[in-house]
Amino acid sequence: MTEPTTLTLGRAVNSGLRRAMEEDPKVLLMGEDIGSLGGVYRVTEGLKKDFGAHRVLDTPLGEAGIVGTAVGLALRGYRPVCEIQFDGFTFPAFNQITTQLAKMHNRTAGDVSVPVTIRIPYGGLIGSVEHHSESPEAYFAHTAGLRILTPSSPQDAYWMTQQAIACEDPVIVLEPKRRYWLKGEVDTGRPGTDPFSAQVLRPGEDATVVAWGPLVPVALAAAEAAAEDGRSVEVIDLRSLSPVDFDTLEDSVRRTGRMVVAHEAPTFGGLGGEIAARLTERAFYALEAPVLRVGAFHLPYPVAAVEDQYVPDLDRILEALDRSFAY
Amino acid sequence: MDAAPSLKAARGAAPRAPEPRTRLVRLLDREGALLEDADFSPWVADVDAEQLRGLYRSMALARRFDEEATNLQRQGQLVLWAPLRGQEAAQVGSVRALRPDDHVFPTYREHAVAIERGVAAAELLGVFRGHAAGGWKPSEHHMNVYSIVLGSQVPHATGYAMGVAMDRRAAEAEGREVEPTAVIAYFGDGTSTQGEVHEGMVFAASYDAPVVFFVQNNQWAISVPFSTQSRVPLAERAAGYGFEGVRVDGNDVLGVLAVTRWAMDRARRGEGPVLVEAETYRLGAHTTADDPTKYRDREDERRWAQLDPLVRLEAHLRTRHGTGDAFFEDVARAAQDYADEARATVLSLSPPRFEQFFDTVYAEPHPLVEEERAWYRDYVAGFADASPDGQDPPADGAPDDDGAPAAPGAPTAGLTVAADPDRPAEGTASGTEEDLA
Ligand SMILES: Cc1ncc(C[n+]2csc(CCOP(=O)(O)OP(=O)(O)O)c2C)c(N)n1
User: Fold this and answer.
1) Which of A154, A186, A218 delimits the end of a domain?
2) How far apart are CA B433 and CA B168, in angstroms?
3) A190 CA to middle of ligand 1, Å?
4) Ligand 1 in contact with B195 (CB < 6 A)?
5) Given a cut of 60, is residue A204 above it in pLDDT?
6) Does the annotation count A298 as an active-site position?
7) Which intervals hold domain Dehydrogenase E1 component (chain B) (predicted)?
8) ipTM for this model
9) Residues B217, B234 contacting (CB under 8 angstroms)
10) From A72, A145, A242, residue closest to B156, measured CB to CB
11) DSSP 3-state assignment of B125?
12) Cβ atoms within 10 A of the Cβ of B142, count?
């Protein structure tokens, strides 16, 4: 038995990549500056040294090239793991991801699969310049053929990385970059939970808050604060953004009667709307209030000096809970 | 260089490309006489009269098939067709240079390539009948499905070739023998502008990937001439990436065969990528939804028609090898048979069951797809009265009562048949989609 170790989320991804590479020689890493530098967030640190430049490719600078060649490598039997340096730089590869990667299995009537993993550090509040703090999940969740995971803890990061690589479908792993330094226990001996399931992190009776990735600790803190006011709030980490585990959400809202969905992406057209609509369809008579959404404004991600006003925080989640209880 | 651009240039007159510096490889002259080329003739030294007749047969077959598909579209049996007429030599010459496990990444007009790779007429036409997105199994033909988003397949080809090189290194490290293979990516002159083509080429150079980029420069994107895409022959761009580029007369099947053999061999030997530019001409419309009279002048078409690749090879076979009428009549019959068979197969195809499209979205089980599939089944079952077999509800494109397939898709149904398939009258074929998008 291995003993649990304490790792940061970034290190946990690193360990997950390492283990996947050890177990399958077809696993390759590709991306900009991921080799000797170890990536701009140092997530791939040390892997080139240990596995060689033929397994950890410092690619030329072109996101469509990275994802496009990964598709070709997958067609040849490899399992490429692409790193996109920052969320805002995913868009040059948008075509490859949505029209090619997502559809190849379907276009070939199931003859070929393209088990490509794309790791994207995402989300804001890192005090950076524009295009470094985006939450692009809704664009990809809207595309059939892709799966999207986002870990919120080191334990999940360790396993989700490996589960994404092992999956025969293309998987986008959105890594909450402002949580890369979050520490937690990682038990490498205990198998990971089903990556496509939502997890109840904190049970509660009066309302449910659903969050993912960077907002999970915020949601937990909000539940903590609500408890001081005598409200018992359940917190669910959604984990998989495509597919969404609606069963777990429905089960929760049938018990609590109220739901708030919180995400960093703008509210309009975001995943929160999809979740609200589905739960309204599935559990209308169990609801005491409409499913409410907490998200960012319909603005381009703002400059660092005011970004904390844009990204939902604990108070914005509490405000939504207040509104829910006011029905 | 002019000090300041003239007003005319500023208004967007088509820029003229400077004279190409890259020589044009040609092994059969325009009258069909053999030309000696110190570099490339040796690559086809083994090609005897029998093989030449085989090349002719393939080209003629592809042409006749293409005509039949164009007619089928005019009759409402296909939703769209992209004719290859004029490009037979470029396609047959290049595909004949491949070994069975070399891998092909095509665009959407590579019908002769597909046929040579063993793709059945029904598989190919299924795509254009609106029955299948891809049509065939890439694993069976070593040829990926057609690519409609222009240029997307180019980095795929590079990536696949990177994998070939990795496999080879792994095998060498283990002391295993491997049959060297290479990859070929097809695309057009218009597509050469796409950023992904550029990225595919940079990656190919960076990783010395065994890939041949084969451009069929048929002079036109849809209505946009080559001069808008490039100021230099595309082959010259190869130098900028640091690999070989060759221009070949794309209407000379022997020249194309020689150049592609050379390029594939180089790639297989691990000497890196090659860009081949085959200069040819699309004699017909871009697709059956296009109207070239709006942008192309007749004179240009007439000039290129005289350079017809089949005519040229026929002249060579007749004068140099004494091939007589009997052979050409035989080929014409075989091509007619093939076309007849293709037509019969198409007419026998019935639309796929909608429900099968739930099967292949994901490789692994997916709860949302399963939920929607179950919903769809229930919904369809609710039509049990209307549809006694409890199958798909009646919809556009479903079989008529007599079992004959209806015209697929509403837009083309009921269009009048244009007199000349290459010359659609205004308001007929062009009344649907403007292009493949
Ligand atoms: C990304 C993209 N943009 C536009 C189109 C629409 N379209 C289809 S074919 C075509 C012209 C292509 O020209 P070229 O690459 O020269 O190939 P050709 O058709 O002449 O063989 C266009 C613009 C498309 N399919 N994909």
Assistant:
1) A186
2) 45
3) 52
4) no
5) yes
6) no
7) 56-340
8) 0.93
9) yes
10) A72
11) helix
12) 17
In the numeric block, which tokens belong to residue A120? 């994207």
Alpha carbons within 13 A on the beta-carbon side of B184: 33
Do residues A135 and A207 both lie within one domain?
A: no
Tell me whether residue A293 is in a domain. Answer: yes
Supply φ then ψ for residue A9, to 5 degrees: -60, -40
pLDDT, tens digit, 9 for 90 and up, residues B380-413: 999 987 655 545 444 444 433 333 333 333 333 2
Token digits of residue B120: 């059945």
Write the CB contacts of A179 (distance below 8 Å, at least 6 apart in sequence).
A9, A152, A213, A214, A217
CA distance B87 to B70: 15
Residue B72: CB atoms within 10 Å: 21
The answer on A143 and A259 residing in a single domain is no
A138 inside domain? yes
Question: Do A245 and B367 count as a contact with CB atoms less than 8 A apart?
Answer: yes
What does the CA dihedral B92, B96, B97, B99 come to, rounded to 10 degrees?
Answer: 140
What whole-number distance in Å separates Cα of residue B360 and Cα of residue A101? 13
Ligand 1 closest atom vs CA A95: 1
Q: State whether B361 and A72 contact (CB < 8 Å).
A: no
Q: Which of A160, A186, A212 is the last residue of a domain?
A: A186
The answer, yes or no, to whether any atom of ligand 1 lies below 6 A from the CB of B131, is: no
- What CA–CA distance (Å, rounded) separates A178 from B99? 51
Answer yes or no: do A57 and A171 share one domain.
yes
Q: Kindly report the three-state secondary structure assignment for every residue of B22-50.
A: CCEECCECCCCCECCCCCCHHHHCCCCHH
The answer on A294 and A212 residing in a single domain is yes
Tens of pLDDT along chain B (437 residues) come to: 334 444 444 444 454 555 667 899 999 999 999 999 999 999 999 999 999 999 999 999 999 999 999 999 999 999 999 999 999 999 999 999 999 999 999 999 999 999 999 999 999 999 999 999 999 999 999 999 999 999 999 999 999 999 999 999 999 999 999 889 999 999 999 999 999 999 999 999 999 999 999 999 999 999 999 999 999 999 999 999 999 999 999 999 999 999 999 999 999 999 999 999 999 999 999 999 999 999 999 999 999 999 999 999 999 999 999 999 999 999 999 999 999 999 999 999 999 999 999 999 999 999 999 999 999 999 999 998 765 554 544 444 443 333 333 333 333 322 333 334 344 333 333 333 344 43
Q: Nearest 5°: CA angle at A245, between A244 and A250?
A: 120
A92, amino acid identity: P
Residue B252: CB within 6 Å of ligand 1?
A: no
CB atoms within 10 A of CB B30: 14
Residue A119 near residue A77, CB atoms below 8 Å:
no
B61 alpha carbon – ligand 1 mean position (Å): 25
Angle between helices B195-206 and A63-75 (to 10 degrees): 70
CB contact under 8 A, A73 and B202: no
Q: Least CB-CB distance to A145: which of B145, B159, B361?
A: B361
Contact between A210 and A176 (Cβ < 8 Å): no
B18-23 long-range contacts, CB within 8 A, separation 24+: B18/B231, B18/B232, B20/B232, B20/B233, B20/B235, B20/B236, B20/B247, B21/B232, B21/B236, B22/B233, B22/B235, B22/B236, B22/B245, B22/B246, B22/B247, B23/B247
User: Could you tell me how many helices (H) and strands (E) chain A has, helices first?
Assistant: 12, 14
Could you give the number of structural domains in chain A?
A: 2
Amino acid (one-letter) located at A265: A
What is the residue range of A162's domain?
7-186
Residue identifier of the C-alpha nearest atom 22 of ligand 1: B222
- The reply to whether A178 and A220 lie within a common domain is no
Decide: A227 and A86 in contact? Cβ < 8 Å: no
pLDDT band with cut points at 50, 70 and 90 for residue A3: confident
The answer to whether the beta carbons of residues B212 and B274 sit under 8 Å apart is yes
Pair A177, A322 in one domain: no
Same domain, A114 and A179: yes
The CATH code of the domain that includes A249 is 3.40.50.920
